[in-house]
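HOLO CASE FILE
Compound: flavin-adenine dinucleotide
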Amino acid sequence: MPICGDDFPLTPKQAELMAIARRLGSEKFVPRAAELDREAKFPFANYADLRDANLLGLCVPESHGGRGADYATYAMVSAEIGRYCGATALTFNMHVCTTLWSGLLSEDLEMSAEQRAEHRLRQAIHFDRVVKDGAIYAQPFSEGGAAAAGAAPFGTTAVKVDGGWQVSGKKIFASLSDAADYFGVLCTEKKTDAQLSRRDTLYLAVPRNAKGVRVEGPWDPLGMRATVSRTLIFEDVFVPDDAALMPQGLYFQAASRWPHMFMTLAPTYMGIAQAAYDFTVAYLRGEIAGTGPVKRRQFATKQIAVAEMFVKLEQTRNMFLRAISDAKVDTSKSTRLRAYATQYTIMENAQDIARLAIRTCGGQSMLKSLPLERLYRDARCGSLMLPWTAELCMDRIGREALYEAGETDD
Ligand SMILES: Cc1cc2nc3c(=O)[nH]c(=O)nc-3n(C[C@H](O)[C@H](O)[C@H](O)COP(=O)(O)OP(=O)(O)OC[C@H]3O[C@@H](n4cnc5c(N)ncnc54)[C@H](O)[C@@H]3O)c2cc1C
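Model generated. Tokens follow.
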């Protein structure tokens, strides 16, 4: 059954793409997941499968050889992958959303005819790399300060030089650090005699093999271990003008007008929530190999717990399906607040469903030979993801519900 349920009306394209994701996930990703998690190794083989299926080009327009998926289709495919390997889904988000932001989302932004024409030429370079060369893009914006939370300019800077930009700075938690061919770096244009400003944010694709790029530090976290999200250092790295993934100044416009661009991590955790529920049902039915033949499902407390998980899952899924179909430019206030509430619900409910799954299935279910303990650890990471952490979603809902833009108490 697809992540959206067997009675949700899918377009033929959505049904096809989700069937591919489900086949790859269940046949290829599941058998690899435990070892990748244990060793904290990047899922290179999964990416080879995604590449062969042209899913790296999921959000690249069909006119450029991609699959031409829209936002909702991306979200459903991503959630489907998340059921089988959370780390693959989370990193797939970073890659696909680079093409989504630079592609479909940029179409909605205001730019001059000259900017649009130049952007078209640059888009073609990035799309060709993905579709023809199988290139992988990462999306490092976290720096360990207020920038990734959207509260300050990025400390990673770019100085305009002849024919391009010189990039310097540091990014933490860069998923795909061992795998990406290009790092889609958010940085601030450093202008002479001017303070750094969020309005001057640039979005540049820095090749991993460019002079001055270094990947460093260990990676040994609680969950999402196969994302291999190490630290990136950029020391006076030169990139040409056509490294721009969006025209100058356009990222700020996107962040202000297209809120759902920050909700794209949530589908991974929707998938994890579904996987924890599915495991619980299969376990209690005695269908998980090597765990039988103890009978447990006849106990009323187990049935109530499964019912509680199902209710939470359906609440989460319904918000997910509504919010992904809402995504567009210049949304209304209700739509924006619903997006925050959806992100919050998915991230918090995924870990709650995983918690209930372990409590309900019992001790044997948390052995490392079974996937549930990995789902539990992976689920824990969702609400920490900037810029829409669970806390920041609550901050935004509270503030934006009580204050209209520009309102103060003075
Ligand atoms: C598995 C995993 C993969 C990741 N992959 C990526 C990736 O590919 N790219 C990427 O860019 N990031 C990635 N991240 C990073 C993630 O988004 C966070 O930035 C990261 O967890 C850093 O945490 P922190 O401790 O610095 O954040 P926090 O301390 O939570 O936040 C950093 C800063 O944000 C501000 N802030 C936080 N909460 C609030 C609040 N409630 N109110 C006001 N300000 C607040 C503060 O200034 C704070 O110092 C990943 C994280 C994980 C766990």
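CASE NOTES: The pocket of flavin-adenine dinucleotide is lined by residues 94, 139-142, 144-146, 148-149, 151, 173-175, 224, 227, 229, 381, 384-386, 389, 391-392, 395 (CB under 6 Å). The CA atoms of residues 152 and 306 lie 43 Å apart.
CLOSED: yes
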